[in-house]
From TrEMBL:
Belongs to the DprA/Smf family. Residues 79-285 form the Smf/DprA SLOG domain. Pfam families: DNA_processg_A (PF02481), WHD_DprA (PF17782). This is DNA processing protein. Residues 320-368 form the DprA winged helix domain. It comes from Lachnospira eligens (strain ATCC 27750 / DSM 3376 / VPI C15-48 / C15-B4). The lineage of its organism: Bacteria, Bacillati, Bacillota, Clostridia, Lachnospirales. Gene3D superfamilies: 3.40.50.450. GO terms for biological process: DNA-mediated transformation.
Length: 379
């Protein structure tokens, strides 16, 4: 307990960043040594300024820190740190690893591979569906899913994993007791029970823009591989991909359409050498995942290739539909398709097409996402 408190204390000193902690740990072996160090010894540490020394000294009698430490148990929040047996080993191999991790729920299993799935907040239905399907398949395979609980791709992947009975961890850019975005409160609750929620920021820390790029290094660092589903030219997903590459992690990209802004980041990564993923089994190119699956052979009902799923072409045999209903349904995929396009391509009358589209909606097979634009609800 004493060691736990020293770690909590050193990570909650005002003005002492992760970088300054690294400087301190280059001079001292443990937080307890820092706590007990003399003013003179602290001042002798290169890179530690006089104001930092003052902050360290003042914090030793800071009732706020002690009270916060005692409140963790009441809030059902745990924490871990380098050297503790539950600290994720993967993170020890990255630059700027966090010196404390607060969490709710469970941490990832060390002997089970994990895949991070990230992408655009304002994603397409196509991207959301692919993220969901990949995560469900990984759950079937026993692979853990890591993401940031953001709107769009992140949330779709994590919901897919937990809904399939798998494990998923959300790494937040705020305190673990803060649900952000608030609209994901259902997922936040699910993850506490069926997975985990993690942050390097103390409880109560509000979401701030600068904190999210920092948390991205943890998302990629704790995973064996990263999958980018949809991403713009300048996005947090590309930052995460860059960090993954720096951490020597494999990066996979779901290919998108040329000219689509949500595909620009993905196509850029592919041009730079990232691996395309068209099947969940493509992640077997990552050695640690391949080894795990060879020892734990699991089946997945995800199609062998995304094209086989009827994403780009109608999978008419699976639908069991008859012409001309067949002809209309075959024109609709996970990208919005206009009524005009459906009529022109299926070569049936407008009135007949409208009737069939209504029938398909009632069957729950398609959805009108905006006036006269339709998408497929199932692959």
């Amino acid at each position: 307990m004493k060691e736990d408190y020293y770690w909590y204390w050193v990570n909650n000193i005002a003005g002492i960043s992760n970088m300054k902690l690294r400087t301190l740990f280059n001079a001292f072996d443990t937080p307890e040594q820092i706590y007990k160090a003399s003013d003179k010894l602290l001042n002798s540490v290169s890179g530690i300024k006089e104001k930092d020394v003052s902050a360290i000294i003042e914090s030793r009698n800071n009732e706020y820190i002690y009270r916060g430490y005692n409140d963790l148990e009441r809030m059902k929040i745990k924490f871990t740190y380098p050297g503790k047996n539950d600290y994720p080993e993967q993170l020890m191999n990255i630059y700027d690893y966090p010196y404390i991790l607060y969490y709710k729920g469970r941490l990832p299993q060390a002997n089970v591979p994990a895949i991070a799935i990230v992408g655009a907040r304002n994603c397409t239905e196509y991207g959301r569906t692919i993220a969901d399907m990949l995560a469900k398949c990984f759950a079937d395979m026993g692979i853990q899913v890591i993401s940031g609980m953001a709107l769009g791709i992140d949330a779709a992947a994590q919901r897919g994993a937990v809904n399939k009975g798998g494990y998923s961890l959300a790494v937040l850019g705020c305190g673990v007791d803060v649900c952000y975005p608030r609209s994901n409160i259902d997922l936040y609750t699910q993850l506490q029970n069926a997975g985990g929620i993690m942050s390097e920021y103390p409880p109560g820390t509000p979401p701030r823009a600068g904190q999210f790029p920092m948390r991205n290094r943890i998302i990629s660092g704790i995973a064996d591989a990263l999958i980018v589903v949809e991403a713009r030219q300048k996005s947090g997903s590309l930052i995460t991909a860059d960090q993954a590459l720096e951490q020597n992690r494999d990066v996979y990209v779901v290919p998108g359409r040329i000219g689509d802004s949500l595909s620009e980041g993905c196509l850029k990564l592919i041009k730079e050498g990232a691996q395309m993923i068209t099947s969940p089994m493509d992640v077997c190119a990552t050695e640690s995942i391949n080894r795990y699956l060879n020892k734990n052979i699991k089946q997945c009902d995800f199609p062998n290739d995304l094209n086989d799923a009827g994403i780009f072409e109608g999978n008419l045999k699976k639908s069991g539909l008859a012409s001309p209903k067949n002809m209309v349904y075959s024109q609709i995929n996970l990208f919005p398709v206009s009524l005009e396009t459906i009529v022109n391509n299926s070569r049936i009358s407008l009135v007949e097409a409208e009737g069939i589209l209504l029938e398909l909606e009632l069957d729950g097979l398609i959805e009108e996402v905006s006036k006269n634009y339709y998408i497929r609800k199932h692959i």
